[in-house]
Amino acid sequence: MHNIVKERWLSVSDKRLKEAIDTLKESGVRITPQRHAVLEYLLNALVHPTADEIYKALEGKFPNMSVATVYNNLRVLKEIGLVRELTYGDSSSRFDCNTEEHYHIICDECGKIVDFHYPPLDEVESLAEQVTGFDVSHHRMEIYGTCEDCQGVETQKH
Ligand SMILES: [Zn+2]
Ligand SMILES: [Zn+2]
């Protein structure tokens, strides 16, 4: 990654970390060092990590922390709306702290999930409501393909 991009991105996530901490404080949730670390890791993660990945990334810093602690922290963060859980059938959940409306593109090769922005498809929701009589709560749309990194691997192989 180019340095300029990285620095800009870091300052944005610092701001988001501050905002997230404020939200925690307002919700009366105790900010433990581990909770802080989980949140910070999620905000800095460009991919959408699993609880296991978060655990592995933080276990060096918190030797007494268990995977259950990570799950527990993620549940708390989810309850106050700072984190979204993305479930994908049998594979384990991934966690997303981008709480703005956005869509995901997923790599078929490595499973990486990347955010992209597109105007929310509200019309589809209202159409679905009209034709089915459902009370629509949300929708989920995912795009699949091969990420740039994996495309590179393909090229090297040939
Ligand atoms: Zn990939
Ligand atoms: Zn996302």
Automatic annotation (TrEMBL):
Source organism of the structure: Virgibacillus xinjiangensis
Source taxon at top rank: Bacteria
InterPro entries: FUR, Fur_C, WH-like_DNA-bd_sf, WH_DNA-bd_sf
Pfam families: FUR
CDD domains found in the cross-reference section: Fur_like
Protein name per the record: Peroxide-responsive transcriptional repressor PerR
Claim: Zinc is one of the keywords in the record: yes
Listed PANTHER family: PEROXIDE-RESPONSIVE REPRESSOR PERR, ZINC UPTAKE REGULATION PROTEIN
Keyword Zinc: yes
Family: Belongs to the Fur family.
Gene behind this protein: perR
